[in-house]
Amino acid sequence: MSVESGSAYSPITLLAKRKSMQPKLFWRLGEPIPSGLNWGLRTASVVVPIFLWWLLANSGLVNPKFLPSPVEVIAAFGRLWEKGLFIDDVTASVRRVGIGFLLSAIISVPLGIGMGAFAAVRSLLEPLIGIVRYMPAPAFIPLLIIYLGLDEAPKIALIFIGVIFFNTLMIMDAVKFVPKHLLEATYTLGGSRAQTLLQVITPYVVPNILDAFRINMAAAWNLVVVAELIAANEGLGKRIAIAQKFFRTDEIFAYLIVLGVIGFLIDLSLKLLLKATCKWAVD
Prior knowledge:
The chain is mainly alpha-helical. The protein has eleven helices and no strands. The chain is flat and about 70 Å long.
């Protein structure tokens, strides 16, 4: 049966319809976009908000004391740098986050793998962790001050409490989704339980572990600021509290931007670590 060229089912009509249904470059679903567009969008995501900020700050609509311009924030950053406070504050906050998060990782990785691999361990610990993780970490601050005092220990403990349960559960979920055929193939080839755990399950979930760290690192930075707002002699959170007391909004903006940049650099480092160690899991 022949199909006329002008009919709805002719090859020309179908081809034209198919072309019209192809997604636009911006709206490709689950597909990469060209490198030029990728970097253009990334640059715009930073430049456009800064431009809008500058525009609003210089429009006269908002009191400069409440919304300093980007230039004033840069000047405030320079003053803090000259005073020598900036490096000490960044070092103190990074040290607290680093120690608290590292202690959490040392415990949550084997614990999460164990809970994901062994149903008995999961049944024993999941209900308890499921309850404790809903207790806001800042609510532990009074107890931490009573038990550990006002020095570094309660700040590090707060970060530890705030991230360990989420790290553990995210790693446990990753282990639960290890393909069964990988485990069966290991047993078929004579692999022992320890070999299955250490040479199959653990390497398989390393990308998920790094992703969990990337997500929960943000929570660690939130908590260090909370801890430093309450009791600290130095740190980014402490300096924000002092700036608020003297109504120095330009310094508050400067420290907030520093917090964002530090978090971005840590996230970027974990991404690079993922690419370097788990090339098989990265496109």
